[in-house]
Amino acid sequence: EAQVTQNPRYLITVTGKKLTVTCSQNMNHEYMSWYRQDPGLGLRQIYYSMNVEVTDKGDVPEGYKVSRKEKRNFPLILESPSPNQTSLYFCASSPWTDNTEAFFGQGTRLTVV
Amino acid sequence: QKEVEQNSGPLSVPEGAIASLNCTYSDRGSQSFFWYRQYSGKSPELIMFIYSNGDKEDGRFTAQLNKASQYVSLLIRDSQPSDSATYLCAVLMTTDSWGKLQFGAGTQVVVTP
Fold first, then answer.
1. Lowest mean pLDDT across A64-68, B6-10, B98-102, B106-110
2. Which residues of chain B lie closer than 8 angstroms to A61, CB-CB?
3. Cβ–Cβ of A98/B92 closer than 8 Å?
4. How far is B60 from chain A (nearest CA, A)?
5. pLDDT: is A91 or B31 the higher one?
6. What's residue A39's pLDDT?
7. What is the mean pLDDT of chain B?
8. Alpha-carbon distance B72 to B55, whole Å?
9. Quick check: B10 pLDDT over 90?
10. Which residues, 6+ apart, have CB-to-CB distance to A39 below 8 Å?
């Protein structure tokens, strides 16, 4: 089954404790991206990657890091999480660099206390 | 000014009626437009995309694009309770680097029996 898999689905952590949210896709898509979704603000892009070893900032990259060492994986790293990073996070992938028909993961609900 | 704007709703629609959702965007050079549906607590799923001016129909859904006026709309005919969700308009921005899919905040649709 074609899918984008995020883990964990839910995470509660404390301020400053480094964490990684994993994202993996099995569709051989070149393009992957991370979004955060907050009430009233919609989906905002954090980082995206057009291929292995190629990443770039989205609208809200501060406080986040990503890496793309393999085509299928695109982890999101919070080196020192803060409460304002409490949000619902989505990973997405698509088959072309113009980001058509993005497929989303199930989402990760992160709470930083 | 937000780059992609939608009315937040909720838009209340009687079952069997037509739901009309609107979206305006600021990037005059944008060429690709998408409508996603998101059920509460779930990830967005693509329901329509449109690239050319005019109408595009897919089942009960019709997307309409007017690049001169910079708006895109979605019509849902014969609305069903299962159509109750938040509908996200997304625009592929061209004024920035590749890969920036800009989302509106979404319009909540409630179909009442």
1. B98-102
2. none
3. yes
4. 19
5. A91
6. 87
7. 91
8. 10
9. yes
10. none
